[in-house]
Amino acid sequence: MLHPSYSDLMKVVNSNAKEGEEKIVSSRYSIVMATAKRARQIIAGDEPMVAMKPGMKPLSAAVEELNEGKVRILSDEEAAEELGVKE
């Protein structure tokens, strides 16, 4: 079992949302998808942003990155903005 729990991760990720704004992550599915995407990036060769312990797997590294706030989940609007997509 991975620690922290998904609900703890959701609290960490949503702590960056300003008062009155919509939460960044509102479901377990969202946090699982974000963590899986980051794990695939690590597998593909991205350097983990946390110290890798012996035997640590990419998913564990992705969870740790989210928990430590080293990776930020973008809202759909922020992602489109970063890609330069206009609505």
UniProtKB/TrEMBL annotation:
Keyword field: DNA-directed RNA polymerase, Nucleotidyltransferase, Transcription, Transferase
Highest taxon listed in the record's lineage: Bacteria
One MF term in the entry's GO annotations: DNA-directed RNA polymerase activity
Gene3D superfamilies: 3.90.940.10
Catalytic reaction annotation: RNA(n) + a ribonucleoside 5'-triphosphate = RNA(n+1) + diphosphate
Biological processes annotated in GO: DNA-templated transcription
SUPFAM superfamilies: RPB6/omega subunit-like
Sections of the chain in a coiled coil: none
Cited InterPro entries: DNA-dir_RNA_pol_omega, Pol_omega/Rpo6/RPB6, RPB6/omega-like_sf
EC number(s) from the headed UniProt entry: 2.7.7.6
Quaternary state and interactors: The RNAP catalytic core consists of 2 alpha, 1 beta, 1 beta' and 1 omega subunit. When a sigma factor is associated with the core the holoenzyme is formed, which can initiate transcription.
Family of the protein in this entry: Belongs to the RNA polymerase subunit omega family.
Biological role stated in the UniProt entry: Promotes RNA polymerase assembly. Latches the N- and C-terminal regions of the beta' subunit thereby facilitating its interaction with the beta and alpha subunits.
HAMAP family associated with the record: RNApol_bact_RpoZ
Protein name: DNA-directed RNA polymerase subunit omega
Organism: Candidatus Eisenbergiella merdipullorum
